[in-house]
Each structure stands twice: as structure tokens, then as C-alpha cells.
């Protein structure tokens, strides 16, 4: 049975390998997507100059699948891929990425489905189309013979019409175009476009087409519908004609779930909408809407319940922002361009609707507002992405559990935005030029005060702004899915420094380093850790892996499997920041880790309470330490700042401690006892 399945898979691989279309076959193994093979077409489209064969492309996919994707699209694609892998159904996304030998981003459309081999093994087959190229490949100018052209017109799913330049006669209109134009008459040769569809005035129509000609894709209002048109002037059957192409995929501009326009459509429409708002004397406003808690809602009540909420939100937005430009960006993110008029009243209405729909379950409507945008005529692309980012950033300032439901983009947010841009723009340079350094913070045994390890923490020593702490760059890297690159860099540095330390005979003190939840989305972290430690000859018992508590509670099964893999080959795994999120004792019990790091806030709470003479926080700390020990796990308390706190930990039986009282994070060369 197995060998039959193998041969069936091999057969599939053989078939895909040499396809001219861009196709890939994936398999979902151990909670990760593994690339089984890529076609010649996909290799040609996606490899980079340094990737000489398919194996190199597949290796990159394993470590960083979305390197060439626009960061704001990468998150959406990753989450759709995950949904597809876990729940099946159809996979379909459109996103921007850099294809081989193109400097600018191209639009890619990918569609996938699952295929079951005879033994039940499931593979996913995904077909990619570079939309820009597909359109230009079909450029009608390349069609040499008349028959080939007619044949192409008849069979194309791109909507195409041909109009005489001399008198506007509609010479040809293929089926997709007939559907798209919603004609008032049946198509027949000899009629003009205005006779065929309502809403085209001759002779303006010809001027209009001439105007669009040569400007690439343009948004047009034709036959009562909005469409994206491309017009080419050419000769056909010995006459000068305009060939009008409309967009090939209806779905290209709409979200399949809510039917709302997507970001591409938003981009097309934005300048026209702003002009309309201004002409009516109004002030344009960008609003970014995010439903907080959607992920938890989905996992508690199921995706169909989540989908119902999203549909309800879409419907509500259509009512509240009637006639405005509304788009569904991805998942639970929406964008609205409207007029500054009773803004908060309208947002309140939308928020109340969502509250009702969620029936008190934790799901919060949050909105970021960017007011009074003034469009610079010359750089529309830049402007839209800035407006989008600003509204989004304003939204990101709203606390998860706070009562506030909206926030405006202001000076403070602007500074944060500038900072974010700086970090993103300089991140690669910061690694290349080693501005990012590893600091080591000592870990001691509480009872004997013996040094038992170091935690490795990243520091960015910037030539312009001085020392930047992780709190000011790690969340940005996480949000933009770049944290994996940082962690690879830190791991490499730590292993190199550990090997050098050992060479000098400076003792076998283990180091721990942090990995973020997001690292697991972009490749096989376990494999990377194994490879890097092996490269420098660092033994696994010298490396502890810290994974935050939130990662465990998000996906206990998957993270649990990864923990097992690490532990099996001798790495210790520590659960970091325990007590900083909504911990579940169940998670604690299920997770097979070696040690629990109690978050700084336990000691902070004790400190604060002491002022008022209370003792509940101290009791809690004691109970948690006992509980963790009862489960057979080691305890480490973070954030020890005083002798008194150290004494408390000794009394409660905590095994290890870390904090400013014992030693601040410092560069390796400043640490004496190693
Ligand atoms: P963490 O892993 O919980 O690291 C402990 C943090 O507590 C460090 O902050 C450390 O400087 C700070 N700390 C240590 N002792 C004390 C104390 O006595 N009092 C107080 N108030 N704080 C103390 P840091 O270095 O700013 O790092 C913050 C977080 O950033 C880390 O929390 C970790 O989650 C993340 N991080 C740092 N470096 C990396 C990295 O290389 N990769 C990843 N993925 N995350 C990192
Ligand atoms: Mg840590
Ligand atoms: Mg911690």
C-alpha cells in the first residue's frame, strides 16, 4: 500500500516537475507545510539570482516562504495557507510579491486544492499566476493571425471588446465582456457601444477610450458598472480599432466571504473617492477597523460562527458608511474612506451592532482614524500606503481590553510610525553591520547563589539613536514577520560566542535564547537550531530554548510537538513569561517543558502590595511555585531587584532567579565570571 502511494506521489511529482505553469505540491507534516516539489514554471517565476536549482528554492521556502511578499500581504497569505492546511476547502489568495527579474511588486493569484493519494495521504496542489504577466502575455498585439485572434477572443476568460476608432462601431464583444457590460441589447455587428450598453455617450466614448489607451489598467465607469479597463490601439481586419480588455477575474477585486471590495479595488478607487469628497466640501477620513479577539472567537465557536460575524460587520459597515468606499482587507481587517461627518456616531452604531452579534463574548470593535489627508498628486501609491499605515497604526495604539474603541492618528502615533519605518528600513543593515548585539543576563540558583546560566537578549546599538531596547524593535519585527531573521542571527551569534568561550576553556555554562511564536510560521525552527549548533559544535545541553507562554496557549498541540522534538535531542525548553497572559493550568499540565519562568509581574505585584500591607500577591507567588514544582518542573523567577525579593524566593523554594539585583544584561566581554 505504502509503495503504491509512493509511486502515485512520484507520478504526481513527475507530472508537476516539468509543467510550464507555476505549480507547487505541498504536504502538511507535523503541523508544518513542506514543499514536495515545484514546477519548472514556478522555479522560473520565483527563484532569486543566487538560487541555481529547485532545491535551493525549496530550501528557502522551508525557512522563509514569504521573503518576496509585501509584508502586509504576507500575514494574510500565511493565515489563509494555515486555514487551508488545517481545514481544507479551497485556497485562493491574491497578493503582491517580487518575481524573478522584476524590481517592483507583481500581483500574484494563487489557487489550491487538496488531493488524496490512494492510501489517504493528502497533498495540496497550488497553481500560481502572475497576473501582470498573464495579462501582458495575452496582449492582443502579439496575436498574429486573424483566426488565432478570434479563437483567443472566443475562448478567453478575459472580457474583451473591439471598437472601431473611426466611428465607434462595436466590432466584437466576447462572452465575458457581454456579461460584464450588462447590455441593453443583444450584441450584433453594426451597433455602437452606446447602443449596446447604457451609459456611454458618443463621441465622448471614443475620447474616453483614447484617454485610457496607453495608461495601463484604469478604473472606468462603463455600462453602469465600475470596471478596470485596459485599452490598446491596434489594427484589426485592416481598420484602426481600440481593443478593450476588462479584468479577467471578477473575484480579483472582491473578498469571497463578505463580497466587499478588497485592497486592490480600494487602490483603484481611492483618488476618485477623495476627489468626490473634496468637491462636496468635505474632509476625507481613512478608518482602519479591526475586530480584536477574532482568533479566539473562531477557535471557541468555530469558523462558521466567525464568518457570520464578519458578514454581519460587512453588512453593518455598508449601512453605516452608505455610498463610501469600504474594503475588506483580510481576515478581520477592514478599511473605510469616508467624509468627516458624525464619525464617532457612525462608529458607535457599528460597534453596537457587533456587540449585539457577538452576544457579550469577547470580541471588540476597534478603529484607527486618519483625518484630513491631503493627497500629493504625484505619488498616489505612496500616499495611499501611508494613509493606510497611519490609520492602522492609530488602531494598534488601542489596548486590547480597554474601553476605548477608536483612536486618531496624532503626533505620538506619528513618532511611533517614524520609528517603525526606521527599524524596518535599517533592520538588515543593523544585522550586516552588527549593530545588533547579544547581551547576557546571568541566572543564579537561589539557594547556593551559584551561576547556572545566561539569558541572551538582543540589543540594537544604533549609530544615530543609541541603544534601542527589544521592547522598541521586537514587536515591530514580529508584526512584520521578520523576527525569524533576527532569531536566526541571534542564534548564530550565541553559538559562535559559546564555541569561542569553550575554546578558551571558559566553562560549560548554558545559555538560553528566545524564540517568538512567529518563528514557527516561517520554517522549521527545530532544524535551524540543530543545524546552527552543529555548525559551531555546541552541544544541545548548553542551549535552552525559551518560548513564551502565549505561544503555548495559542496552539498547544502544535507547540507541544515542537517542544518534544527539541527535548528528544537534548535541548531544554523553558516556558517564558508565565503569568503574563491568561494562563491555563491545563496548558501547564499538558506542556512537557523543563522549566517555567515566572514573569516579572509576580514580584512587581508583591512589591506594590507590600506598600499597602497586603499579602495576596505573595501567597499567589508561593502557590504558583509549589504548583509548578508539584508538576515536576523547575522554577525560575524573573525580575529580582532586591535582596528582600531574593529572600522571599528562597523561602518559597524557587530554584533559580534572574534580575537586576543579580546582574543586568551585558555584552559578553563585560562579564567576568564565565
Ligand atoms: P524576556 O525573555 O522575558 O526577557 C527578560 C526581560 O526582563 C529582559 O528585557 C530583561 O532585560 C528584563 N529584566 C531582567 N531583569 C530585570 C529586572 O530585575 N527588572 C526588570 N524590570 N526587568 C528585568 P529585554 O532585554 O528588554 O527584553 C524584553 C523581551 O524582548 C524579552 O523578554 C523577550 O521576550 C524579547 N527578546 C529579547 N531578545 C530577544 C530575541 O533575541 N529574540 C526574541 N524573539 N525575543 C527577544
Ligand atoms: Mg526570555
Ligand atoms: Mg520573560
Automatic annotation (TrEMBL):
Domain of life: Bacteria
CDD domains: EAL, GGDEF
InterPro entries the UniProt entry points to: Cyclic-di-GMP_PDE-like, EAL_dom, EAL_sf, GGDEF_dom, Nucleotide_cyclase, Rev_trsase/Diguanyl_cyclase
GO MF annotations, alphabetized: cyclic-guanylate-specific phosphodiesterase activity
Alphabetical list of Pfam families matching this protein: EAL (PF00563), GGDEF (PF00990)
Residue span, EAL domain: 420-674
Protein name: Phosphodiesterase
Lineage of origin: Bacteria, Bacillati, Bacillota, Clostridia, Eubacteriales
Amino acid at each position: 500500500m505504502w509503495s503504491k502511494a509512493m509511486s502515485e506521489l512520484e507520478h504526481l511529482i513527475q507530472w508537476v516537475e516539468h509543467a510550464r505553469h507555476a505549480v507547487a505540491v505541498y504536504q502538511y507534516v507535523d503541523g508544518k507545510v513542506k514543499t514536495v516539489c515545484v514546477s519548472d514554471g514556478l522555479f522560473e517565476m520565483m527563484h532569486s539570482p543566487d538560487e541555481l536549482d529547485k532545491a535551493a528554492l525549496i530550501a528557502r521556502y522551508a525557512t522563509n516562504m514569504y521573503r518576496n511578499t509585501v509584508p502586509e500581504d504576507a500575514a494574510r497569505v500565511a493565515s489563509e495557507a494555515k486555514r487551508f492546511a488545517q481545514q481544507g476547502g479551497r485556497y485562493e489568495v491574491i497578493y503582491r510579491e517580487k518575481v524573478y527579474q522584476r524590481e517592483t511588486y507583481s500581483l500574484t493569484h494563487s489557487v489550491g486544492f487538496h488531493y488524496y493519494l490512494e492510501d489517504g495521504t493528502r497533498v495540496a496542489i497550488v497553481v500560481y499566476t502572475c497576473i501582470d504577466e498573464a495579462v501582458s502575455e495575452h496582449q492582443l498585439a502579439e496575436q498574429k493571425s486573424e483566426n488565432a485572434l478570434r479563437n483567443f477572443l472566443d475562448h478567453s476568460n478575459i472580457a474583451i471588446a473591439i471598437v472601431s476608432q473611426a466611428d465607434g462601431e462595436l466590432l466584437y464583444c466576447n462572452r465575458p465582456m457581454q456579461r460584464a457590460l450588462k447590455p441593453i441589447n443583444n450584441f450584433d455587428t453594426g451597433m455602437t457601444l452606446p447602443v449596446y450598453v447604457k451609459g456611454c455617450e458618443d463621441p465622448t466614448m471614443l475620447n474616453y477610450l483614447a484617454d485610457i489607451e496607453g495608461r495601463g489598467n484604469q478604473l472606468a465607469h462603463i455600462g453602469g458598472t465600475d470596471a478596470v479597463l485596459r485599452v490598446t490601439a491596434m489594427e484589426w481586419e485592416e481598420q484602426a480599432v481600440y481593443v478593450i480588455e476588462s479584468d479577467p477575474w471578477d473575484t480579483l477585486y472582491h473578498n469571497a466571504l463578505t463580497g466587499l471590495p478588497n485592497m486592490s479595488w480600494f487602490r483603484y478607487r481611492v483618488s476618485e473617492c477623495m476627489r468626490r469628497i473634496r468637491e462636496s466640501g468635505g474632509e476625507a477620513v481613512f478608518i482602519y477597523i479591526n475586530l480584536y479577539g477574532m482568533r479566539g472567537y473562531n477557535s471557541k465557536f468555530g469558523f462558521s460562527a466567525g464568518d457570520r460575524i464578519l458578514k454581519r460587520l460587512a453588512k453593518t459597515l455598508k449601512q453605516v458608511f452608505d455610498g463610501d468606499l469600504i474594503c475588506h482587507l483580510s481576515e478581520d481587517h477592514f478599511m473605510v474612506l469616508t467624509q468627516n461627518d458624525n464619525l464617532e456616531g457612525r462608529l458607535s452604531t457599528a460597534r453596537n451592532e457587533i456587540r449585539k452579534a457577538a452576544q457579550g463574548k469577547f470580541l471588540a470593535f476597534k478603529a484607527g482614524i486618519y483625518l484630513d489627508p491631503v493627497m500629493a498628486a504625484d505619488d498616489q501609491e505612496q500616499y495611499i500606503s501611508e494613509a493606510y499605515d497611519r490609520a492602522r497604526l492609530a488602531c494598534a495604539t488601542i489596548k486590547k481590553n480597554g474601553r476605548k474603541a477608536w483612536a486618531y492618528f496624532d503626533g505620538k502615533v506619528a513618532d511611533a510610525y517614524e520609528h517603525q519605518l526606521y527599524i524596518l528600513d535599517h533592520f538588515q543593515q543593523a544585522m550586516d553591520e552588527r549593530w545588533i548585539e547579544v547581551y547576557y543576563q546571568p541566572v543564579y540558583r537561589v539557594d547556593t547563589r551559584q551561576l547556572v546560566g545566561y539569558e541572551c537578549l538582543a540589543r540594537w546599538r544604533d549609530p544615530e539613536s543609541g541603544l534601542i531596547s527589544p521592547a522598541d524593535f521586537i514587536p515591530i519585527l514580529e508584526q512584520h514577520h521578520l523576527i525569524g531573521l533576527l532569531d536566526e542571527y541571534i542564534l548564530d551569534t550565541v553559538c559562535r560566542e559559546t564555541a569561542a568561550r569553550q575554546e578558551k576553556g571558559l566553562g560549560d555554562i548554558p545559555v538560553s535564547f528566545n524564540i517568538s511564536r512567529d518563528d514557527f510560521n516561517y520554517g522549521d525552527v527545530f532544524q535551524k537550531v540543530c543545524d546552527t549548533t552543529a555548525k559551531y559544535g555546541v552541544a544541545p545541553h548548553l542551549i535552552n530554548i525559551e518560548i513564551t507562554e502565549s505561544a503555548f496557549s495559542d496552539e498547544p498541540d502544535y507547540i507541544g510537538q515542537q517542544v518534544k522534538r527539541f527535548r528528544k535531542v537534548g535541548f531544554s525548553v523553558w516556558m517564558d513569561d508565565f503569568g503574563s497572559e491568561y494562563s491555563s493550568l491545563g496548558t501547564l499540565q499538558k506542556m512537557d517543558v523543563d522549566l517555567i519562568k515566572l514573569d516579572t509581574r509576580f514580584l512587581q505585584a508583591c512589591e506594590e502590595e507590600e506598600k499597602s500591607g497586603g499579602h495576596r500577591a505573595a501567597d499567589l507567588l508561593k502557590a504558583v511555585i509549589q504548583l509548578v514544582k508539584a508538576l515536576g518542573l523547575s522554577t525560575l523567577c524573573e525580575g529580582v531587584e532586591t535582596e528582600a525579593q531574593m529572600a522571599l524566593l528562597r523561602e518559597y523554594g524557587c530554584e533559580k532567579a534572574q534580575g537586576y539585583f543579580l546582574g543586568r544584561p551585558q555584552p559578553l566581554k563585560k562579564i567576568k565570571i564565565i
